[in-house]
Amino acid sequence: MAIEDKIAQLKEAIEKRGSVVIAFSGGVDSTALTALAFDALGDKALAVTIDSPLFPRNQLETAVKTACEIGVQHKVISFSQMSVPYFAANTINRCYFCKKALLDTLLEFAEKNDYNVILEGTNASEIEGENRPGYKAVQEAGDKVFSPFVDLNVTKEEIREIASSFSLSAANRPSAACLATRIPYGQPITLETLEKIEKAEDYLFSL
Description:
Layout: H1 3-15, E1 20-23, H2 28-41, E2 45-51, H3 57-70, E3 73-78, H4 94-112, E4 117-119, H5 133-140, E5 145-146, H6 148-151, H7 156-165, H8 191-206
Parallel strand pairs: 1-2, 1-4, 2-3, 4-5
């Protein structure tokens, strides 16, 4: 299927939701999804970025700039996963507890502000043959959370094509996982460890 047809299908599926909050990190998946939602719904689409200890400052700055580039309304909500039971213990399914807490935060915000659905950017390439505890939390949310790229079988490569078609700077942006992914399972996650990792990576990027 031509990418133009995929874009049309995605916009139609998003438009049917009426009004949406997009889980927006500024990465290529959420950026392409936000551009599609803004194109389909205009002011009925709101990009929301969760500012947490797991989200590096440079990525937050990128998210703010990328939202401006799209033209979409953008809100930043502060939230700390460190208060989430079982997350800091860093078990193999920590992503489930993190994702569930983030989705609950977004769902509460959406309900208070009269948005119908949360859009999130998991893509078809990510869920094939991998342990994806975070996606389990998405599935458990039912109709309140919609993953258009999974629903319409859109791959990572196609998402980059979509981003390119919108002339978005994120089109060739490398994937970036949260800071907790640098800590081996079983080793407790602490704010001090996360801060050290972020400072170390900032230094490496500066080189």
